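Q: I have 203 residues here and want to know how they pack in 3D. Can you give me a structure?
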Amino acid sequence: GPRLRRARHPAPPPPAAMPTPLVLLAASTAAAQGGTLMLLRDYVARRLTGDAGGYFTDPSHPPPVGALDAAIDFSALAGRGEYEAAVAAAYGRLRARGAWLTPAELFTPHYGAALAAFAAHAFDRHAPGRGAPVEILELGGGTGTLARDVLTALSSSRPDLASRLTYTGLDASPQLAAAAAAKVGAAGHASAFRGAVGDARDA
């Protein structure tokens, strides 16, 4: 008998391409800049660290990076519930200015001590020779808590490294760089620390 053949229909045209969030952002940025397109990375950098109203650098309000009044005593906490209550209490004191805490702040001084141990191991493994200068560069040094804790831990556990160590805390915020220098200096490490203001992209 006769064979039936399936009719062939042309494939439907692809749907119109929807603009991606990056395209929309570029378009809105261009409109705001008088028609000048801007790379996304430059837009983000301007919003975070720009001279006029940057999230971290706006001189009209304190930086959003907070610090604890005192380190959390983890040995006194009985389980997750008490830990979460301690963190909530810390954030409650910072809520008025919209500040937040980094892991280095929440887990001070243990976070810095752990990084100090890692750094000492790395120096021992990769240093060019005994007595060579040692440098640490922290991008986004914040309030200086991490620098203070690393330097304190190395001074105690590895004075041979601490004596030839230069620790630079780079931050886009002049307020944070000054706060870091004051905090590290108060802990007795002023000679090993340099607080610098700058862009991590140029480091």
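Q: Anything worth noting?
A: The helical segments are 21-32, 40-49, 80-94, 103-106, 110-126, 145-157, 159-162, 174-186. Residues 112 and 170 are 17 Å apart (CA to CA).
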